[in-house]
Amino acid sequence: MKVGILEFQDNPFIRGVVQRLSDLDTEFISLGELVHPRPSPYRVVIDRVSFCDPYLRTILRYWSRGGAYVINNPFFTLTTDKFSELLLYDSLGIRHPRTVVLPRINKAEDVREMVAPPDWKKIEEHVGFPCILKPVDGYGWQDVFRVETPDALRSLYESLSDSRVLVVQELIHHVDYVRAFCVESGDVFIVRWTPRPFDMAEYSLLGTDELKDVREELERKTAALTDAQGLDFNTVEWSITADHRVVVIDSYNDVPDVRPEKLPAQCFEWVLDRFCACVRRKLASEETNPVIGPQAGPPSGPGLKP
Question: Is 108 exposed, middle or buried (0-12, 13-18, 19+ CB in 10 A)?
C-alpha cells in the first residue's frame, strides 16, 4: 500500500515526513490527464497543494470517493466559510467576533430585486470601529484589512465586492494571541503567535505557567472544532482578552503552515511526530473520507456512453 504525497519536494515539512516514513512506500504524485475509470494508486494521500489548483482538487475528490483516504478531506472545503462557521461556534458554546456578511456587487447579473445595498449605519452599530474586513472564503492574509472609519469600509467594499463575498467583524482587543495545532482532534499543541501580514508573523513557545487558566479550555475547544469540521490536521487561532475570555478568530485550516524556520523547534517536532503517526494509522486502517453525496466504490468499468 502506497502513500501519495501532493507537495513540492523541497518543502522542509514534507521532507521530514518522508524521512520519518522511510519504511513505508511513499511517492510524490505527478499527474497528467486521467481517463475514467482510474482507481487511486494510493491508500493514503497527503494533500498540501490542491487548495490552490482546481484540477488537483478534482482528482483528489475522485480518488477519495473511490476509497482512498486523503489528509485533509478534499470535500469538506465545499461546506465551510467564515459566516456559516458561526453557527458551529454557537452550537459548541465558543465565543466569536460579532460578524456581518455583506451583499456582493454582482456586475454579471442584475439581482437588485433580491439583494439590497448594505445598511452602513446598522453595520457600524453592530461591529463598531475599528473593525476587520475579509473575504468569507479567504485564505491567509489575502484581502484582509483593519478598517478605521466608515468611509474606509465603504471604499474597500466598493473596490472588492464585485469579486469577493466579504464579512465585517468586530475587532477583538486581545492581550494574547495563539495558534493551536491539532492532529486527529486529540493532540493539541498551543504556541503564541503574533499575527502580521506578508509573512511577518512570529511564533514563540508559551511558558509552563502562561495561560494556565485558559489552556485546558483552548485544548478542548480546538479539538472539538477540528473534529466537527472533519479535519485530521488543523490549526485554530484564538484571541485571549484581558478578562481571560477565549475568542475564536479562525478555525478551519486544511493546510496548516509548518515551517521549521518559523516554528519553535519543539512545536515543529511535535507536529511532525503526530502527523506521521496519523498517516500510519490511516494506512493501517480501512477508514475512508466522509464525502458529500453517495459513497462510491472503486471505479470498475467504462460505464454507459450516450
Answer: exposed
Which residues of the chain carry a pLDDT beneath 50?
301-306
Contacts of residue 82, defined as CB under 8 A and 6 or more positions apart, other chains included, come to: 99, 134, 135, 136, 137, 138, 167, 250
Tell me the CATH number at 112: 3.30.1490.20
Tens-digit pLDDT profile for residues 171-222: 999 999 999 999 997 889 999 999 887 688 899 999 989 999 999 999 999 9
Residue range(s) defining the domain that contains residue 217: 173-251
Own/partner pairs, 241-244, CB within 8 angstroms, 24+ separation: 241/172, 241/173, 241/174, 241/175, 242/173, 242/175, 244/213, 244/214
Q: What are phi and psi of 99, to 5 degrees?
A: -140, 145
Nearest-angstrom CA–CA distance, 231 and 222:
11
Whether the CB-CB separation of 68 and 38 falls below 8 Å is answered with no
Tell whether 219 is covered by a domain: yes
Buried-exposed string 120-139: b where 16+ CB fall within 10 A, e elsewhere: eeebbeebeeebbbbbbebb
CA dihedral for 135, 141, 142, 147, sign (positive or negative): positive
- Beta-carbon contacts of 155 under 8 Å, excluding residues fewer than 6 positions away, are none
